[in-house]
Specification:
Layout: H1 5-14, E1 38-46, E2 49-56, H2 67-78, E3 83-88, H3 112-118, E4 126-132, E5 135-142, H4 147-154, E6 158-161, H5 165-174, E7 178-181, H6 195-206, E8 210-213, H7 215-223, H8 227-250, H9 257-271, E9 275-276, E10 281-284, E11 305-310, E12 312-314, E13 317-318, E14 321-326, H10 333-351, H11 359-376, E15 395-397, E16 417-420, E17 423-426, E18 431-434, E19 437-442, E20 445-448, H12 457-465
Parallel strand pairs: 3-7, 5-6, 7-8
Antiparallel strand pairs: 1-2, 3-4, 4-5, 9-12, 10-11, 11-14, 12-13, 15-16, 16-19, 17-18, 19-20
Helix pairs in contact: 2-3, 8-9, 10-11
């Protein structure tokens, strides 16, 4: 999912202000970690003919029972003695998706930082952690939830009714020195709080507590994924692959962008996901020049390229993949030329993704490769001109949010997962191209989690003709 360079840099530093997606209840069966079930999706290849495409069900995956408990333990190490954390499950920041029924606001669930610490998907709960004498007292306040189920999921024994929260805070704030809250990124011009959180902050200020924003601490913790989190992301990618392949098989000259979006949504549902991780971008021809295009309402001009920036979500974990393919299944020579420049840039950036690499090196690599390619074909004369045709950010973290939170890291570390998305946008030729993959940084270097989704010219053309 692409944003302008200025916006994306802000997203990266602030930990992803775009809060997207929801959860699914996983009812698939797992056999040795492989997909074992398929369904069929009917796609129209012309007005009189229908082609059935087999859709593979995503593997059943889940987080370990002690996942959220361990996350709280890690956070507790970062909290000062004599402090209290008050974390609301209501979304404090982000963009609520509104363009399709799968992303109904009521289904988006809890703020991801809250979920990361509790496993609770409700949006009306509150987590309170008090640290005193280097020990923790954890309490979660809920409304209309089964207390025993909350205890089972969160591993928090003290579960109370939401109505008891204020009395608890009245007592706890009197004996605390520091109040931790989640106010979003410290890079924002204004701190973000719900009305309930503002009330707690005013109460703390009246008692001379120091108020600290826990956002960046949680960003640091969330930026390093566990093996189980990687499996969740891989499952989301597997469903996304099915949706992309269905779109490729459905595409033709004149195809409506909306029909391809519908095909993607139907396919990932058949694959076993409940929703997309963000509103899909299906951009034909010159629509692809707008990296933020979301109308998905036009027909593909003859011989045009389709930029499909899409992602499925499994258990709150997002995929974010972009594939560009010819609407009619065949690249023109010019389209191939430009496409291969973008592909080379992406491949060289990914090759640089080793522990210790400065994030700035990734931008430098992409710009150098794109500039070299554009100079060779005569589109620009100097490397400084590349920004005319590469107009958005190169990467962003991915995880519980499609633009995931991060702390202040400036170098790559094992366990980080990024979406890598170079592109070229040539207004005078009405051509937009973007290629995006999700990449895990390991001790041994990069692992492309979405490597099974085809992206070379030859493989795309062959697949679309089969």
């Amino acid at each position: 999912m692409s944003y302008s360079k200025k916006i994306l840099n802000l997203l990266l530093v602030t930990g992803g202000l775009i809060v997207l997606g929801g959860c699914m209840e996983d009812d698939t069966k797992k056999q040795s970690g492989s997909v074992v079930e398929t369904k069929s999706v009917e796609t129209k290849t012309d007005e009189s003919n229908e082609e059935k495409i087999d859709v593979q069900k995503v593997p059943a995956v889940s987080l370990p029972e002690d996942f959220f408990q361990k996350n709280r333990a890690n956070l507790l190490e970062q909290m000062e003695d004599g402090s209290i954390l008050v974390l609301f499950s209501e979304r404090l920041y982000g963009t609520v998706l509104e363009n399709n029924e799968m992303n109904d606001k009521e289904k988006l669930g809890a703020a991801r930082n809250f979920y990361y610490l509790t496993g609770i998907k409700d949006s009306e709960s509150v987590l309170v952690i008090k640290k005193s004498d280097n020990t923790a007292k954890e309490t979660v306040f809920v409304s209309d939830l089964d207390n025993q189920e909350v205890k089972k999921v969160s591993k928090i024994e003290d579960v109370r009714d939401r109505e008891e929260l204020q009395a608890e805070l009245d007592a706890a704030l009197k004996v605390s020195k520091i109040l931790y809250v989640d106010s979003g990124s410290p890079m924002l011009l204004e701190r973000i709080s719900t009305e309930q959180q503002k009330h707690v902050e005013k109460q703390a200020e009246a008692q001379n507590l120091l108020i600290k924003n826990i956002f960046s601490v949680l960003g640091d913790l969330r930026s390093i994924k566990t093996a189980q989190e990687i499996e969740m992301i891989k499952s989301s990618i597997a469903a996304t692959k099915e949706g992309i392949y269905s779109m490729m098989k459905t595409s033709k000259n004149g195809i409506e962008e909306g029909l391809l979006e519908e095909t993607f949504l139907q396919t990932i549902t058949e694959a076993g996901t409940e929703r997309t991780s963000f509103d899909s971008i299906i951009a034909a021809g010159e629509n692809a020049l707008d990296a933020h295009y979301m109308e998905n309402a036009d027909a593909a001009p003859e011989g045009s390229l389709m930029v499909t920036d899409v992602g499925a979500e499994v258990g709150y974990y997002a995929a974010d993949i972009t594939r560009t393919f010819p609407a009619n299944g065949t690249f023109s020579d010019r389209q191939k030329e430009l496409y291969n420049i973008v592909l080379k840039a992406q491949e060289e950036v990914i090759n640089k993704m080793k522990p210790g690499t400065d994030l700035a090196v990734l931008y430098e690599t992409a710009n150098n490769v794109l500039a070299e390619g554009l100079i060779q074909i005569g589109l620009i004369q100097d490397a400084s001109e590349v920004s005319k045709y590469f107009t958005h950010g190169l990467f962003h973290p991915i995880g519980l949010d499609v633009h995931d939170v991060s702390g202040y890291q400036t170098t790559l570390e094992p366990g980080m997962v990024f979406a890598i998305e170079p592109g070229l946008y040539i207004p005078e030729e009405k051509i937009g191209i973007r290629i995006e993959d999700n990449v895990l940084v390991t001790e041994d270097g990069p692992t492309v989690l979405s490597k099974d989704i085809i992206k070379t010219v030859d493989k795309i053309e062959q697949f679309m003709k089969e």
